[in-house]
Structures are given as structure tokens and as C-alpha cells.
Amino acid sequence: MIPSEFEFHTPASLDDAIQLLTEYSEDAKIIAGGHSLLPMMKLRFAEPAHLINIFEIPELKGIIDEGIQIRIGAMTTETELIESELIRSDPSAH
Fold it and tell me: Is 68 in the same domain as 43?
């Protein structure tokens, strides 16, 4: 089947994403690069009017040394974690 019509949004910042979620509320679904929602949409079990892609939001990515802790953004990939010198060099990460 073909999914029903929807608008695809790619916010440039976390503030933009929050604004879209506020504006479209229950008519919106967040996606983050995965494809688990697409089969549901094809079968029309899910029919969001708006898809908000958060994968490219810079504030949600990265590995940052904050002194007593390391902050890992929610959209940081497994590859980025594996390749991170900061993670490898931190003795508390083992």
C-alpha cells in the first residue's frame, strides 16, 4: 500500500523541532533515521500528517567532556562512540 499524504520536516535546531511539535502536536511523529514507522504507514496503521526528522539536529549529537562527566548526545551514532578518542581515553568509561 501507499501511505497517506504527510509533510516532512527537517528542523535545523532543537528549538525548531520543539516549535514544530508544539504547532502540530498529535498530528506529528518524530523520526530519527530509523525506518520502523514506514511499514506501519504503508499499512495505514499509522497516518501522521507531519513527520519531524530529528537526525540532523546538531544539539542532539556529539560526545563532550564536561569536566566530571562526558555528555553523549541522543543522536550520537555507535560508530562515533567506538571511534571517540575521548571515550577511549577516559578510565571511568571502562
Answer: no
